[in-house]
TrEMBL record:
Native source species: Streptomyces sp. NBC_00049
Name of protein: TetR family transcriptional regulator
Alphabetical keyword list: DNA-binding
GO molecular function, one term: transcription cis-regulatory region binding
InterPro entries: Homeodomain-like_sf, HTH-type_TetR-like_transc_reg, HTH_TetR, Tet_transcr_reg_TetR-rel_C_sf, TetR_C_16
Highest taxon above the source species: Bacteria
Region (Disordered): 1-25
Domain HTH tetR-type: 23-83
PANTHER family: HTH-TYPE TRANSCRIPTIONAL REGULATOR RUTR, TRANSCRIPTIONAL REGULATORY PROTEIN
C-alpha cells in the first residue's frame, strides 16, 4: 500500500517540521528584526540572524517578509511609530503648529525608549543606500504626504519636506553626532528658537 502524497509547499514556505509557525509568529519575527537591526546595523544583519533571535526557520522569514529590504522596512515601521503621529499633531490647526511640531519631535527623541530604535534607523540610513531608500519611502508615504494634505499653503509637499529636513538635521547633530553646544542644549530652548521657522514653513504664504 502506497503512502498518500504529501501536500506541496508554496514558494518560500518551510516544512512544518522546520519552523515554529504558530499564532503571532509574524509579529515575533518583526520584533526580532527591529532588535537585530538596532544592535548590528543594516550591513551586519542577516535573515538567518533574525530567524535565530525569533526562534524560527529562515525560510519562514522569507515567506512572511520576502527580502532583507522588505524586512528592514517592516522593522523600522515599528521604530517610526512615534513619527506616524506627526500628521495628527499638524492637523490640530495652523495656530501654534510650529511649536507643537518642535515640542513633539524633541519629546520623542528625548525619551530613551523611542530614541534608541530611531538612532539605529538613522545610522543605517546614513551608511547604506538600500536602508536609506526604505526609510525615504516610509517617511514620504506615511508622514510627509499626510502632512502636506492638511496644509493650506502653496507647494505643501515642499513645505512639509523643509520642516522635516530642519528637524531631522537637528536630530542628527544633537543625537547622532552629538555636536556641542546643541547636544547639551535645553530642549525648551531649542523649541523656542526653532518653532517660528517651522511655523513659517507650514503656514506663511
Amino acid at each position: 500500500m502506497t503512502e498518500p502524497a504529501k501536500p506541496r509547499r508554496g514558494p518560500g514556505r518551510p516544512r512544518q517540521d522546520e519552523a515554529d509557525d504558530g499564532p503571532g509568529t509574524q509579529e515575533r519575527i518583526r520584533l526580532a528584526a527591529r532588535e537585530v537591526f538596532a544592535e548590528r546595523g543594516y550591513d551586519k544583519t542577516s535573515v538567518r540572524g533574525i530567524a535565530k533571535v525569533a526562534g524560527v526557520d529562515p525560510a519562514l522569514v522569507h515567506h512572511y517578509f520576502g527580502s532583507k529590504d522588505d524586512l528592514f522596512g517592516a522593522a523600522i515601521e515599528i521604530s517610526m511609530e512615534p513619527a506616524m503621529a506627526v500628521p495628527a499633531v499638524i492637523g490640530e490647526g495652523p495656530e501654534g503648529i510650529g511649536e507643537r511640531l518642535a515640542r513633539y519631535f524633541l519629546g520623542v527623541w528625548e525619551n530613551p525608549a523611542t530614541r534608541a530604535p530611531l538612532l539605529a534607523v538613522i545610522r543605517s540610513a546614513l551608511t547604506h543606500e538600500a536602508a536609506a531608500k526604505v526609510l525615504r519611502g516610509l517617511v514620504l508615504r506615511r508622514v510627509l504626504e499626510r502632512v502636506a494634505a492638511d496644509l493650506d499653503v502653496p507647494d505643501p509637499t515642499f513645505r512639509a519636506e523643509l520642516a522635516a529636513s530642519h528637524m531631522v538635521g537637528i536630530a542628527i547633530l544633537r543625537y547622532v553626532l552629538q555636536v556641542e553646544p546643541l547636544a547639551s542644549a535645553d530642549p525648551e530652548a531649542i523649541v523656542e528658537l526653532v518653532a517660528p521657522t517651522l511655523q513659517r514653513y507650514l503656514t506663511e504664504e
